[in-house]
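## tool: complex_structure
## caller: assistant
## args:
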Amino acid sequence: MEDLTSLKQEDNQEPEEAEQPWEEITAASSQDPVPGLPEPLESEQGPETGLQPGSSPPQSSQSRTSTPLNDLTGLGASSPPSFPQEPTSTPSTLALARQDLWSPWKSDKTTSVIPEARTAHSNHLEQSSDKGESAPHQKCQSEGNTFQQSQQTKHHLHEPKDASHNNSKLKELRLDIFQEEDSNSNYDLDHPEPGTSEVTPNMLEIAIQNAKAYLLKTSSKSGLNLYDHLSNMLTKILDERPENAVDIIENISQDVKMAHFSKKLDTLQNEYEMLPIYETAEKQKALFLQGNLEGADQELEDEILTDAHPIQRCRFWGKILGLEMNYIVAEVEFREGEDEEEMEEEDVTEERDNGDSEADEDDEDELPKSLYKAPQAIPKEESRTGANKYVYFVCNEPGGPWVKLPSVTPAQIVIARKIKKFFTGRLDTPIISYPPFPGNESNYLRAQIARISAGTHVSPLGFYQFGEEEGEEEEEVEGGRESFEENPDFEGIQVTDLVESLSNWVHHVQHILPQGRCNWFNPVQKNEEEEEEEDEEKEEEEKEEPDYIGQEVGPPLLTPISEDLEIQNIPPWTTRLSSNLIPQYAIAVLRSNLWPGAYAFSNGKKFENFYIGWGHKYSPDSYTPPVPPPVYQEYPSGPEITEMDDPSVEEEQAFRAAQAAAELAAEENEETEEDEDEEDEYD
Amino acid sequence: MDAESLLLSLELASGSGQGLSPDRRASLLTSLMLVKRDYRYDRVLFWGRILGLVADYYIAQGLSEDQLAPRKTLYSLNCMEWSLLPPATDEMMVQTSVVKGRFTGDPSHEYEHTELQKVNDGEKVFEEEVVVQIKEETRLVSIIDQIDKAVSVIPRGALFKTPFGPVHVNRTFEGLSLSQAKKLSSYFHFREPVELKNKTLLEKADLDPSLDFLDSLEHDIPKGSWSIQMERGNALVVLRSLLWPGLTFFHAPRTKNCGYIYVGTGEKNIDLPFML
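## result:
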């Protein structure tokens, strides 16, 4: 009894002692609970919920059991009257509990249990076993404090009422736990009639069975059942004893469900994984604050970029996606006079190469001279002209350091046209390809940027106009006019016009010739000069005078894009209005079909070009790598080099025979000559 | 991507350079809601956009309760009116494999393809040139199907399989952890598995049958056809397919946000082996 009282919270149930031996007997006989039935949970909402304990056990005997909450039978079938059900957590306690026949009986609280009720009992099933055998006397569990909900109801001495009464109570119990009427009605302390006790347990049993069956019902969706879930949850709560468990009960429930999926217990929390994001965030925050500017991250990046270099104009060019990292590209125009040092170094190395090759030729006089002459390297264009008009800086991430890309050489462009490779994101990756690309990823990137700019940078017609007309035409400025400037009188073109007709857009970047440059470089001239220097030795090589290479011409600057070639009946550009719903605010968007990812857009007055993509040209046919060239005739064929078969045996013998015959003939001739001489002498 | 979280998902996927203008987003939001109601789908996904020459197709898909069941595909030209597409069949695939090039943007456009077919005329067998007409809608259906089968992605743990068969969304999925998110093996193909049976018994022993019932991306051929990157520090992991350029899958680790979108021309990148 003491236990009971200690366990209790304000319940309406009065624990009572039950115990008359005769009751026991009857109880024993009417052991209702089928072993395995969950004990009806008395969810005593106790003080927290402030609910009435609900119906007291129907039995008049008021044996109530406080069952551990694991068995949250909402329906609370009351335990058989004469049984003291126990809610002991362990059978052992049960055994202990059952000491004497006078142990108080607990009535089951048959109030339905709210699943969230906190019960701390883990072994729910014990009760059923307990119920099954023991005698009615059980007591409350040892851990009374945990069972706030447990009903430590008082024992009644009363026997269970008649079956009907019990039944009705049962039904009521099933309905609602908050019905105080039940409890009230249960408090009738009429004398229990032992006789009826046998009947009511059956109803209770059935009720308990039904309740438990319901809880064990497997969910059709997840394969779990409520019974197991609740028991797991309560186990966890009892093990961990969190503070304010009622407030976090939903999270506990969710954690238990999740634990179902993960197999290993990984108690280490990898908090440090989140650090990289904090670092980048810190860096970017510093950038944001530094310039005291507000605006897009991009502008700030450029701001920092401009501080470091003497830059006149800087523009966001676009983003090139890579395998491991991406590139964010900025197009920069340096002020005059910058960046010329690199050029000188290049020239020096070229001269040295030429000197070496000449020396080699002199040494190899004895060996047949190779006729191979490397195609002359086409010198790259000057800075700020042609393909190298702008300098490009790349970074991998906003906030990362900017790296300058080297200038592009025509050879690189020519080969870049023949290969198709993904960018990895690291500038020093070698490009392994056929034909071999002269350079690493930074050069390839620069070459692709040059090609994309040349192919897709367009502006509305009239935005740019040519500068002053230049008088000289033929020799120097063969490639067409280069300079252009903004037209101050540009008034803008209607957006709808921009969308409808492609002739309203013009290229403002020079086209790159097949040679790899924008301005035609005639390699023939130089060859003639060289030949003049080395007349004698190289007379043979005059035959090798390169054929006249036709001058390569590309479309001049500022040609409308309607002149762009189609690819297999696909127009080179697709135009769209950005929005069909509000045409007055829409902007015209031009999408390139040749370079997927290149966009140009304009709202009539202002325009912009940019690129986001993988950096490759579109071709409807699949890429085929170029075939290696046929083996080159390096050396002139002549008797010195031509292989001949070794003579066969017959040939050799015939040869020797012939030789022998010749010798004989020679000897005879000599003899005859000698004879003749002698004869002459005699004469 | 889920139509419910459309705006957030579009933001997260925008690193690949494909976005939608505000009015299209607004129209999508409303029209996808209506589609969900009218067709009674459990979930509606905005699949993406196929760029045509004249117009673009916006594609959406509707899923039923079982996530692996065949999906219904709808297309629209203006993000408002959606039309149902027929389900894909193998013959369609064979038929459209001969068509190359861009989509035009006109669903009634027909591609002409001349084939040499053997015609039996009595005893004579001769070849005739037959012009086969293939509708653009058919091509659209089969391309969408191919892309789904090849490169649609779902993270491990987002779906689970019940013993009865149907596959459900896992409500307790809280996102991959950072270390898991960087590995290609934590992502699965969102389609019926084809390679699971080929795994060795040792490997199978490590699998959890309720979670590991799909093919992982790890063993895709050619190796390296996925580019996996972390953006914004470690706050977002983005997978891009190199085989079908334009497919982007994003996931914010430790959150439930994940999804994929395809914006591209609808052509396979056959040059992939040369490009790696």
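## assistant note: The mean pLDDT of chain B is 83. The helical segments of chain B are 6-13, 22-39, 90-96, 136-151, 178-181, 201-206, 272-275. Handing back to user.
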